[in-house]
Design brief:
mainly alpha, D-Maltodextrin-Binding Protein, domain 2, 2 domains, SBP, Multiple sugar transport system substrate-binding protein, palmitate, Bact_solute-bd_prot1, cell membrane
């Protein structure tokens, strides 16, 4: 997901050796006879599945012991990875999107995994949105640096259809309509405890992901091609300032933005604290259903994120494949590749995809169409209502988002790990900084970071 948090990038630059030094001995210091996994695929049934099924099966087949570490969503995993890199005990792999490990890509610390993905495609067919796993440019633009786990569709407005119906609201197509809906929900007598919108304002994580969708729907982007095949900063005032303006408007109808991130959004939604928010996929439906709030889960609908009046967006939001980079220089990268073949192979991938069927959409159409997948318990509720939500996202929302032509490079992905849009959001919504001054800070930060990461490039 766009933006990743802090800490790891500081460690890599603070080591004073760069990627070359890491290859020379800082990595590969772990147990040569052990596979070390770092993952945020935890909670719910995940830990039981890892420890009682996936890992024992692999250990029995390979005779390689597996050490698994669990992290929370967005932030804690990056901190732990930074610590492991600094200590010379890098895990073989962890889970994320290319936007979350752009620093590792740029510094040459991710392994090319085309052989693994090719093997999986022989089983499942072509990987969906594979271009999001291929971060290189030029004659290396088809190199794959992550093994697909599941599809994240970021450009989704989630809303309470029951609340919309009760208040006679329409699905918004513009920002003004979205704000009007937020005000109507916030001021209604019928839903006194519900706020109109859940606005993320933490300085890392979800607020940066949401900002990317706002910026796209304002008609802008962070980077653009300069006509000479090079990328340049395009974080222009014309598109960014309207985003800050609408965030300030929505903050009048939101709980405290400083306390809203990924996990908070899920908890708040289940608690009925707001009636609209941005969220990947129909993710909110899964935890709500598992918590026993079936009616709430069914009433949670998805729509395309509204646009700014008069905007001409290049895309209506982002879509990325969450996956697994293999850390090049870790102790057992080949074993990690075999584990991924095992985890995502014919015997396990459907079951893996059903661990969080509303958070991730399978990365292969053959899994989406598989009988075992479609016959899962959650997809039998209300004649397949939750499966229909996933199908709606893929059929109606994704075509407005898929944009292989959006400019990107290892350097720009590296800059993305500094979470500049998230901090910009936090400065305006939480610290009360003047939007114009905060915008100027962000532009300067982008320029400085871009210069820095070009010096650190080692791919």
């Amino acid at each position: 997901m766009p933006g990743s948090g802090i800490h790891r990038r500081q460690v890599l630059s603070g080591l004073g050796v760069g990627a070359a030094g890491l290859f020379a001995g800082c990595l590969g210091g772990g147990d040569d006879d052990e596979l070390h996994i770092l993952t945020d695929l935890t909670g719910g049934e995940w830990e039981t599945y890892w420890e009682e099924e996936l890992i024992p099966g692999f250990e029995e087949d390979s005779d390689v012991p597996v050490n698994i570490e669990y992290t929370g969503l967005h932030g804690s995993g990056e901190q732990r990875l930074a610590t492991l890199l600094q200590s010379g005990d890098a895990p073989e792999f962890y889970h994320g999107t290319t936007s979350e490990f752009g620093d590792l890509i740029n510094q040459g610390l991710t392994r090319q995994v085309d052989d693994v993905v090719d093997d999986l495609e022989e089983e499942w067919g072509d990987a969906l949105f594979k271009y999001t796993l291929q971060p290189m440019t030029g004659d290396r633009d088809e190199e794959t640096h992550s093994i697909p786990h599941g599809v994240y569709v970021g450009g989704c407005l989630n809303y309470r259809a029951d609340v919309y119906e009760a208040l006679d609201l329409e699905v918004p197509e513009t920002w003004d309509e979205l704000v009007d809906n937020a005000q109507a929900i916030d001021e209604s007598d019928e839903f006194e405890e519900m706020r109109g919108f859940g606005l993320a304002g933490e300085p890392v994580g979800k607020s940066g992901s949401d900002f990317a969708n706002w910026l796209y729907n304002s008609g802008g982007d962070v980077w653009q091609e300069n006509g000479d095949g090079e990328l340049e900063l395009w974080f222009d005032e014309e598109h960014v300032m309207p985003v800050l303006d609408v965030l300030l408007e929505l903050s009048e109808y939101s709980p405290d933005a400083s306390a809203i991130g990924w996990e908070d959004t899920i908890e708040d939604w289940i608690g009925g604290r707001y009636g609209q928010c941005f969220m990947n996929n129909a993710w909110l439906c899964g935890p709500a259903y598992e918590a026993g709030a079936e009616d709430l889960a069914l009433a949670t609908e998805q729509a395309l994120i509204p646009t700014r009046d008069g905007a001409d967006p290049v895309t209506r939001g982002w879509v990325l494949v969450n996956g697994t980079p293999i850390i090049d220089g870790s102790s057992n990268p080949e074993t990690a590749e075999e584990f991924k073949r095992y985890m995502y192979g014919a015997d396990n991938h459907v079951e893996v995809s059903l661990m969080e069927p509303m958070r991730f959409i399978p990365p292969y159409e053959e899994i989406i169409d598989d009988d075992e997948y479609q016959e899962a318990e959650i997809f039998q509720v209300e004649d397949g209502a939750f499966l229909e939500k996933n199908e709606f996202i893929m059929d109606e929302i994704v075509p407005e988002l898929e944009s292989p032509e959006l400019p990107s490079s290892p350097e720009t992905l590296h800059v993305g790990t500094f979470d500049i849009p998230a901090e910009l959001t936090n400065r305006v919504l939480v610290d009360g900084e003047d939007p114009e001054e905060a915008y100027e800070w962000a532009v300067g930060e982008y320029e400085t970071r871009y210069d820095d990461v070009q010096d650190q490039a080692n791919y």
